Amino acid sequence: MTVTSADIARVFRAEHGRAVSVLIRALGDIDLAEDAVQDAFTVAVERWPRDGMPPSPAGWIITTARRRAIDRLRRESTREARQAESVALHAADPVDPADGRDEEGPVKDERLRLVFTCCHPALSREAQVALTLRLLGGLTTAEIAHAYLVPEPTMAQRIVRAKSKIRTAGIPYRVPRDEDLPARLASVLSVLYLVFTEGHTASVGDDLDRPDLAAEAIRLARQLVELMPDEPEAVGLLALMLLTQARRPARTDAVGDLVLLADQDRSLWDPTLLAEGHALVRACLRRNAPGPYQLQAAINAVHTDATDAAHTDWSQVVALYDQLLGLAPTDVVRLNRAVAVAELDGPDVALGLLDGLDLTAYAPFHVVRAELLERLGRRAESTTAWERAAQLSDNAAQARHLRARAAAADEGQQDPGRAT
């Protein structure tokens, strides 16, 4: 069977985080581990199309990366050569990612351990999250910058500084102790949420989503809830992911074009994920300790509880956003609240709420504005806003939908799509 570049790309997306995690623990050097894994995939691109896919692609990548790293260490100095020999002695056997071997400690999952390690309190929150997204998800600097709404050079500097801080401060890659976990939880939640967000709607590419990343984020969130079952925000995040993921089968049509929430065939939603997500939301409500992820999950629960868009309890959605604003007073939350306000008080009131939001480089801001302007009959302004949103989107499926909306507004046609 011929191995294509797409096949190798799938292995990269699925196994990059695991391979980097294993190599960091073995080598104690983030840069060396990341470079070695990249080298291994370069070798795979050369060999697999010719020799075929190995029985265990992940094990092949990790073993090849480890050998490349050891070879590099041996070349660099006598001292490092001895270090390399030690590594080789402790890691001579090929690694099978499913073999279950692990060291003692509260965090058993290799990739979740990497998340907790990168979320060391010596690093800034931005650096923690950026570095983990880079190592765990294999996200490019451009993709991470997009998630943070900052220029790519700014994000590149953050990642370089984070790696330098770990190196110069001698921060070890080790199993976090039980007492280390609570202080790192907020950053870990941020990382998992952003990995899921990138999986739900890819910042770049031809496809709307990256299901591998979304699935990995959900898997890690489950691991986190198992590790810290008394943390309501961890439960809330898992609920948010499940309720969002449940809608995935209805988000695109037969040709891969985007279908917005109001127009989705709700019979296609995953009932198992919905049931689990709603059960977790109810468990969070019983704790009576609301946090941002729990409130976002509750908002999603309201949306997914409605039999159709017309029966959505918008007053409850606005009330939940009001609560969320008290805990996370960000412009993105204000933007999402404005969408709900439009359903209660009309598009003119909601449009006024957009004034002053610092989101001009954020495509969803222009989507919401375009929808509100269109509903007010201001089609020329709406067309401009749709076009601006399309310009800001590097996701082909999303941009295609936005250009179609711009064309419909320009022609003065009523389009049934709704911004969410």
TrEMBL record:
Coiled-coil ranges from the UniProt annotation: none
Domain RNA polymerase sigma factor 70 region 4 type: from-to ranges: 116-166
Alphabetized UniProt keyword annotations: Sigma factor, Transcription, Transcription regulation
Domain called DUF6596: residue spans: 184-283
Region (Disordered): 81-105
Every RNA polymerase sigma-70 region domain range: 12-77
A Pfam family it matches: Sigma70_r4_2
InterPro entries found in the cross-reference section: DUF6596, RNA_pol_sigma-70_dom, RNA_pol_sigma70_r2, RNA_pol_sigma70_r4_t2, RNA_pol_sigma_r2, RNA_pol_sigma_r3/r4-like, TPR-like_helical_dom_sf, WH-like_DNA-bd_sf
NCBIfam families: sigma70-ECF
Family per similarity comment: Belongs to the sigma-70 factor family. ECF subfamily.
Protein name as annotated: RNA polymerase subunit sigma-24
Species of provenance: Terrabacter tumescens
Lineage start: Bacteria, Bacillati, Actinomycetota, Actinomycetes, Micrococcales
